[in-house]
Amino acid sequence: MNQYVLEMIGIHKHFPGVHALKGVDLRVKPGTVHGVMGENGAGKSTLMKVAIGLYKADAGTIRFKGEEVSFNSIHEALQKGISMIHQELSPLPYMTVAQNIFLGREILNRFGLIDHKAIDREAGKILEELQIPISPSRIMGELSVAQMQLVEIAEAVSRNAELVIMDEPTSALTEKEVDHLFEIIRNLKNRGVAVVYISHKMDEIFKITDEVSVYRDGELIDCRKTSDLTRELLIKMMVGRSIDQFFQKSKAKIGEIILEVEGLSRRGVFRDVSFTLRRGEILGFAGLVGAGRTEVMETLFGIYPKDKGTIRIKGKKVDIHSPYDAIRNGMAFLTEDRKRSGLYLNLSVRDNIAIASLKEHLKGFLINHSKIHSICEQAVQTLSIKTPNLEQQVMFLSGGNQQKVLVSRWLATSPEILILDEPTRGIDVGAKAEIYKLMSTLAQEGKAIILVSSEMPEILAMSDRIVVMHEGVKIGELTREEATPEKILHMATGETLATFQEAR
């Protein structure tokens, strides 16, 4: 038996202006979970895409089960036994779960026609075996992101995959769904299946992996047993330096109230939400998935209409019916899903940064391109955006750099109020530290910031006050001094602060 199910040796890959992989290695043993870590832009996803035949390596050797391979397509990799579950899922939404699992491998009856009953039956067996409680006849588009990911795992198992690559599989999962996923991964491991697990979440890496390979700037830094690593060492390997002050929150002068929200409601989504926001303040919004935090921000920004409620900016009542109204009133909104509702992936870095502030750079009917170029160049330098040039399409940047482009776009509108919804989701520790530093600097400049985050350490470290929501209702507020993980979690499950304190 081969010691490794997958060996990638001396892999090089170039893109225009970028040497993405510089002779890197990856060795994965059968029946193990192999973590792959590194900052955005380190080359992790590129290496995996080479492994499954989506990209062709410029140089290097790939062996699968001891046999040298060179895949020309994902289909070839699948036939050999390598499956990849991407961060951005792409199921066929109008087909059933069973049809998605057996897509391209349909079971035929003796007349050569597709046997839908047989497909449902076989898919049901796989789902039951993996303890995935989803009916094979469900329409794929009706499922949650978490359920779609589980169906993709079922598809990999149905193909008898011997290597399953998972790229940020828990980015949109609840804690309970993550636990279920880990059970399935352990099940795969017990069958002798190898799992390559790409994640930025260190707790998960330490919980589920056997070995970890760390990449930086397109190079392999080290590969070690997980038991030989510490959190501090892993961070240092990833970013090339220790991060003593990861959450860089400087003390800012809290000024006058700039935003007042009173009784904001959207029927069936959230009700009677009231809060204030001051200059120089970072106001955190905490809560479990489905608490309604994002929906409140979308309504505040005019993406969806409110049913009732009053919004005042600098003491003046304002009517916000669209994002244009919100921007005109000095607001900016960094959405939680940068790819679906934030970035124009086919456009350049320059166009993505400039698009929200184009009106300010008009000379009559002509656009002041030199001014736009100057602003974008400054943004790239200020936020350390890694891009070959301003003409680079945003789709080719790493997640962290894409997020910085979005932040630059909104800063170009000179906002007074910034709404940041999950600003560090899916980005590496180095980029996170830079986002935290930027938030702190903006607060010191007198900007008012709303931070929506599902990461407890982030909320606790960066917020001056914390609003806690549960099922569309504001449960209460906590000051920075009185906030603890325990208090926030109790309130996030619907328990008021007074009730929690009485129970103590």
Show unreliable segments: none
What's the level 1 CATH class of the domain at 6-239? Answer: Alpha Beta
Specify the oligomeric state: single chain
Note the total helix count: 18
N-C termini distance: 58 Å
For the biggest β-sheet, the strand order reads 6-7-8-3-9-10
Structure report:
The protein has 18 helices and 22 strands. The protein has 504 residues and is α/β, with parallel strands linked by helices. Strand 9 and strand 10 form a beta hairpin. The longest helix has 16 residues. 43% of the residues are buried. The model has no long low-confidence stretch (mean pLDDT 86).
Task: Tell me briefly what this model is.
By secondary structure, the protein is an alpha/beta fold.
Topology overview:
Elements (H helix, E strand, L loop, with lengths): L5 E10 L2 E11 L4 E6 L5 H8 L7 E6 L2 E3 L4 H7 L1 E4 L11 H5 L14 H14 L15 H14 L4 E5 L7 H16 L3 E5 L3 H7 L2 E6 L2 E7 L5 H9 L17 E10 L3 E9 L3 E5 L6 H8 L7 E6 L2 E2 L5 H6 L2 E4 L3 H4 L7 H6 L7 E2 L2 E2 L1 H14 L16 H13 L5 E5 L7 H16 L3 E5 L3 H7 L2 E6 L2 E7 L5 H8 L4 H7 L1
Parallel strand pairs: 3-8, 3-9, 6-7, 7-8, 13-20, 13-21, 16-19, 19-20
Antiparallel strand pairs: 1-2, 1-4, 4-5, 9-10, 11-12, 11-14, 14-15, 17-18, 21-22
